[in-house]
Structures are given as C-alpha cells and as structure tokens.
Amino acid sequence: MGGYARYVWPCFVLALAILFWNLWSARRHHARALQRAARAIAMAGSERT
Amino acid sequence: MWTWFYRLASPPHVYRVAAAFAPWLLLSAGALMIYGVVDGLVFAPPDYQQGDAFRIIYVHVPASALSVMAYTFMAVAAAIGLIWRIKVAYAVAAAAAPIGASFTVLTLVTGSLWGRPMWGTYWAWDPRLTSELILLFLYFGVMSLRVAFEDPNRGDRAAALLATVGVVNVPIIHFSVVWWNSLHQGATILKLGKPAIDASMRWPLYAMLLGFLLFFGSVLCMRLRGEVLSRERLASWVRETVKT
Amino acid sequence: MSIGVWNAMSLVLRRDLSLSLRRPDQLVQPLVFFLIVTTLFPLSLSPEPALLRQMAPGVLWVAALLSALLSMDGLFRGDAEDGTLEQLLLSGQALAAIVIAKTFAHWLVSGAALVLMSPLVATALAIPVAAFPVMMLSLGLGTLTLSWLGAIGAGLTVGLRRGSVLLSLIVLPLAMPLLIFGANATDRAIGGDSATGALYFLGSLCVLTTTLAPIAAAAALRITLE
C-alpha cells in the first residue's frame, strides 16, 4: 500500500465491521421484537381466561 | 392499478415483502462490494498525488453518500407518516435511523484516517467532515427523541417532526459550514482529496456506491420487520406469525 | 363569540409578559449565567486583551447560545403543568399564532435582555465600542432565531422529564449556522470590516425561522399534548 497500509486497511476493516454490525443488529432487533410480541400475546391470552 | 401502492401501508404486507426482498438485496450488494473492493484495492492504479491512500475513497465516499441519503430517506418517510398518518412510514423512519447513523460514524472515522496521511492530523475542520459531524448530532437527536416518550406513538410522531425540521436544515448547515471553512483556509487546501478520477478508478467507486445503497435497502428491510412487529404487537396477523 | 387572531395574540403576549415580570429572579438567572460563562474564558485562557479580542466573538456567541437555551425549557412548561396549554389548544385559536405570541414574549425577556446586556460583556472581552452596533444587531437576530428554533424543541420536549437536556441536544445542531454567521459578523465588526454579508444571512435565517418555526412548534405541541 505504498506505506499507507496502516490507514487504508483499518478503513476497510472498519467498513466491514460496520456492515456486519448492521446485519447483526437488525437480526437481533427482529428477534427481540418477535419475543416481545409472543410475550404480549401470551399475557393477553392469559388475561382473558 | 394502484393496489400495490396502497398495500405498502399495510403492516403484514410490508412484513412479508421485506422478508422477500432482503436476501436478494444483500446478495447483489455483496457481489458489487466484493468487485469494488478487489478492483479498488488491487487493480486500480495508485493516485499521482495521494499514492495508495486514495483507496480509502472506496469506503469513505459511499459511506458519506449513504449517510446523507439515509437521513433524507428517513425524513421523507417521516413526512409521509405525519401527513398521511401511515404507521408503516414511522416504522420505516425508525428503521433507517441507526443504519444512517452507523454510516455517518464510518464516514467520520475513514475521513479522519484519510486526513492523517494527507494533512498530518487525525481531525481537521474540513467542511465535509464538520457537516458530517453535525449530521451525526442530528441523527442522535432524532433517535433520542423517539425513545424519550413513554407512548411509542408519540415518540414516532415527535421524532418524525424533528427529522423533517432537520432535513430542511441540512442544506443550510452544509452551506454555512462550507462558507465558514472558506474563511479559514490554512496553507494546505483542506478539501478531502478528490483525486482526478481516471476510468480505472471510477468503476469500483460506482460499484461500491451502488453496493452500499443495496446494502442499506437490505438492512432496512430486515430492521423494518422488527419495527413493524413492535408496533403491531397484538394484531391478529402477528399472532399467526408468532405461532409459526 | 370568538376574538380575532390579533387580539388573541396580544392577550397571550401581555399575559406571558406580566407572568414573567412577576418572577424577576427567574428572569435574571439566565443573564447571570451569561455573565458567568463569559468570565470562565478569560479565567481559563488568558486575560490579555489582544487574545480576548480574538476569541471574543466565539465566547460571546457560545455564552449567549447556552444561556438562551437554558431559558427555552420554560417556554411551555409552566403552562403545560397547570393546564393552560391544553386550554389554549382547545381554544380554537390558531395554535401557530399563540406560539408566535408566547415565543416573542419569551424572547423579549430573555434574548432581548441579553442583547441589552451584551455591551457589558463585550467590554469585559475587550471588544471595541465601534463594534457594538453590529454585535448587538447580530445578537438580536440570532437570539430571536434561536427562540423560534427553541420553540420547536420546547414543543417536542415539554412533557418529558429530562426535557431540558434533550432540548439542547435537539436545538444546538440546528443553531450552528447562526453561530457561524453571528460570530463572523461580530468578528468582522471588531476588525473594522463590513459585516453586511453575514448580517444579511442572519436576517434571512431569522425570517425563515419566523415564518416556518411557529407552524412546526404548533405541530410539535399537538403531538406531545393531544
């Protein structure tokens, strides 16, 4: 990298990290939303009985 | 004829459609980015002035373009939600915010790392970096406001109003910062180097730009599903979905 | 029998002014804060006049911004707590007009007072007297613009517990253009140059916010209160 390696590589590594963070965070968010929905439905169901 | 359009306001429909789109968007984004990175890192020739440091452009420019685009997108969705009272639009705005904010952070850090070899300093009040920093503050404002309310509907609408006000300000802020920076030109020209882009350097950049855009779309679809779910918790379609 | 918009606005203006003037201690606090913050800079940097004059525009404007923001939280909070705000919402009068009246009343006792006090602070910061007119004009336009922006922020945060910090977080990024141009106008005046360009821009920012902000602030109030 013509001597600039310690600037160029961290940029690409960070970009990759942020892309993966986005994917991971989106999946976790969805999973949490599913859990909370399940819990809310369960509670609403038990209230009625 | 417009039913496809009306269905976009329906949460269960959006939930299904987003699931269908996400993997394809992600795959095409991945392909474009792999090509862009390989071509940009390996095959593009080093810049005449900046040497190999210019390669940072292949992540910095797409990140900065997306950071601004995501904010505008969020503001448009927010405005649609406010004007037509469409709940799904609020979910879209909520989904877009953290993605855009993460791209803003990426822009700032890559900009800083690019600045070090170019200007000898990790931070310089370059107009674009300064505008990006203020954009990050705007993102934080919208995200903080949304969660500050106990009633999530109120939070959605307040954040939507703030996003709309903010988007009007983005060009004003950018203009002010550019003007301010022009007053204080140091000996070095503090513009994040736009090297004279030769064709061999241009294609990987376009690929990365499009790749980032498609990636944004795919993550948006993924986040949107979670946002829609949390706003429709007790709806009957959600019961069906949760059971499966 | 409903009174006209202008009558409603002048009623709200007079009410808010008389309410504010009944609590002079609350009026004085932001001004004292302005003075204190300004004092921090010579203490932490250097009392040398040449240096003070250089940093004066920035110090003046940052201090003015912060002290104006401090008082913004009170714009709607008092009325929200005792239910007056809901009555105003239900009154059938144009909410944006009421917001204009309240915000203007608030500016008269905070921003305008700050402008009147600015020569005092300017002297402490070694700003030459010749620069005072431009400085005060720019501060006047700037604090008024900030009041409009603050009204939007106050409308969005009025019901929240830690509203004031969030209000500052929301308003400060939006206020950066007026900081840039206001400080620049003052800086040019200190240097003896013409500040017309910056003043025109401040003026246009002020007009823009005066026309649009009340609508946004009214919308914000409807969101947070209804």
Task: Please describe what this structure looks like.
The complex is a heterotrimer of chains A (49), B (244) and C (226). With 49 residues, chain A is an all-alpha fold. Chain A has 1 helix and no strands. The longest helix of chain A has 44 residues, at 5-48. Chain B has one domain (32-43, 53-231). Chain B has helices at residues 3-7, 11-43, 57-84, 87-119, 127-148, 152-183, 199-231, 236-243. Chain C has one domain (5-225). Chain C is 85% helix and 0% strand. Chain C contains 10 helices and no strands. In chain C, α3 packs antiparallel against α7, α6 runs parallel beside α7 and α8 runs antiparallel to α9. The longest helix of chain C has 30 residues, at 196-225. At the B-C interface, α5 and α6 of B face α8, α9 and α10 of C.
Given the structure, what is the number of helices of chain B? 8
Got a strand count of chain B? 0
Radius of gyration of chain B over all CA atoms, rounded: 20 Å
Provide the β-strand percentage band of chain C: under 5%
Helix content of chain B: over 70%
Distance between the termini of chain B: 32 Å
Query: Based on the structure, what is the oligomeric state of the protein chains?
Result: heterotrimer
Q: Mean pLDDT of chain C, nearest integer? A: 92
**Secondary structure category of chain B:** mainly alpha
For the report, how would you describe the main beta sheet of chain B?
none
Number of DSSP-assigned strands of chain C: 0
Low-confidence stretches of chain C: none
Keywords:
heterotrimer, A: mainly alpha, C: 226 residues, mainly alpha, 10 helices, 85% helix, 0% strand
Q: What is the secondary structure topology, with strand pairs?
A:
The complex is a heterotrimer of chains A (49), B (244) and C (226).
Chain A: H1 5-48
Chain B: H1 3-7, H2 11-43, H3 57-84, H4 87-119, H5 127-148, H6 152-183, H7 199-231, H8 236-243
Chain C: H1 5-22, H2 24-44, H3 49-72, H4 74-82, H5 84-90, H6 95-109, H7 111-124, H8 132-157, H9 163-191, H10 196-225
Helix pairs in contact in C: 1-6, 2-3, 2-7, 3-7, 3-8, 3-9, 6-7, 6-8, 6-10, 7-8, 8-9, 8-10, 9-10
